[in-house]
Design brief:
The complex is a heterodimer of chains A (about 70) and B (about 300).
Chain A lengths: L2 H13 L2 H30 L5 H4 L10
Chain B lengths: L1 H15 L6 H7 L2 H27 L27 H13 L22 H9 L2 E4 L8 E4 L13 H7 L11 H4 L3 H10 L15 E2 L7 E2 L20 H16 L3 H35 L12
Antiparallel strand pairs in B: 1-2, 3-4
The chains are: A mainly alpha (about 70), B mainly alpha (about 300).
């Protein structure tokens, strides 16, 4: 299937009618938000490694002196 | 004005050129018009400069300006995406509990706020039970004391402001919950204040019970230096130097004032990603919708009249 065909199929199946377009938005919103939130939080935890509560749980560790 | 100055100087430069080989011609061409322009330029500069000086002189000087401003410290939660150091918050809570809480209340903080931020639920429960909280009235109509619960606020060292003042030479130890937000300079100010005690310089007289701190507006502060090296011992074995104690307690107070700090930064990241996508989409849509209007051509065909 060529690229033009794919976009044509998608257009006909989703974008062509408002009903299918809105339905797609509503259905995709849930998995999108799950994935998006997970990814951003993972990134946030990665750049703040060692500073968050999960890092000091159980074993409070000495870190960074000023 | 800049254009006028440019034009005037350009003309003056052009006019001086002939002076190289004909002095007399220059004198002649330096007409009254050029002189007028020069006067205008000099006049505007004088008026502009005068206005600036007058405005600067008219600014009032406040006594609070004459205070030592704290330096900017590189807090490791500075930055758009940097979370608070929760290990530091935990140590800071220990400092607050063992040092500051003797005089300062934190009446808007509850033990439940500590859960999953610096300690587990069991730890926080044990922490709350150490405090005696007044509750009641019971069936006999009397108030009684009981061990604290997670939902209790931090205990007050004094019953009311009057008692606090009476115990502290008339100075009221402020509530510390939102103190970082409530002071100019925020964390830098609190840190400098805690570590900045000094002997009063010559000429400054302190009343009894007052101490000298250059960072405090006015210089004389009712609070004595509270943090010394090794004044407490940290759970996690961090060396308890004065600056470490101050840094930790300030981080704790920062968290107390803005408990949403980390979440806010995470949501900020999400908002920036989503909104930049939406911005790109709206830009594309605008170009798309306007392309018809922008690329159309209007032709005027004069009507032909029959004669």
């Amino acid at each position: 299937m060529s690229l033009a065909n794919v976009s044509k199929t998608i257009y006909n199946a989703i974008f062509r009618r408002t009903s299918t377009f809105v339905l797609t938005c509503v259905v995709l919103a849930y998995p999108f938000e799950r994935a998006f939130n997970t990814l951003t939080e993972q990134y946030f935890r990665q750049i703040n490694k060692g500073k968050l509560y999960d890092d000091i749980k159980k074993k409070p560790e000495p870190e960074e002196e000023e | 004005m800049a254009a006028f100055v440019g034009r005037a100087t350009k003309q003056a430069l052009l006019r001086t050129k002939p002076a190289l080989f004909n002095q007399q011609a220059t004198i002649v061409t330096f007409s009254s018009k050029t002189g007028k322009r020069l006067a205008w330029v000099l006049g505007s500069i004088a008026i502009g400069g005068g206005t600036v000086v007058a405005t600067a002189l008219a600014q009032p000087t406040f006594a609070s300006d004459l205070v030592l401003h704290p330096p900017k410290y590189p807090w490791n939660h500075n930055g758009l995406l940097s979370a608070l150091d929760h290990g530091s918050i935990r140590r800071g809570y220990q400092v607050y509990k063992q040092v500051c809480a003797a005089c300062h209340s934190m009446k808007f903080m509850c033990y439940r706020n500590l859960v999953n931020v610096i300690m587990s639920e069991e730890e926080a429960k044990a922490e709350a039970e150490e405090a005696l909280v007044e509750d009641g009235p019971n069936e006999a109509g009397e108030m009684f004391e009981r061990p604290g619960k997670l939902s209790d606020h931090f205990p007050n060292p004094y019953k009311n402001e009057e008692q606090a003042r009476a115990a502290n030479n008339g100075a009221y130890p402020p509530d510390l919950t939102y103190i970082v937000l409530a002071r100019h300079g925020g964390e830098d100010y609190i840190f400098s204040l805690l570590t900045g005690y000094a002997d009063a310089p010559a000429g400054i007289k302190l009343m009894e019970g007052q101490h000298y701190n250059p960072y405090f507006p006015g210089g004389s502060i009712g609070m004595a230096m509270a943090l010394y090296n090794e004044i407490i011992e940290y759970d996690d074995g961090t060396p308890a130097t004065q600056s470490q104690l101050a840094k930790d307690v300030v981080t704790f107070l920062k968290w107390a004032g803005e408990p949403e700090h980390d979440t806010r930064k995470l949501y900020g990241l999400r908002a920036v990603i989503i909104f930049s996508f939406l911005l790109a989409v709206s830009y594309y849509m605008k170009r798309h919708k306007w392309s018809v209007l922008k690329s159309r051509k209007l032709a005027f065909k004069p009507p032909t009249y029959k004669k």
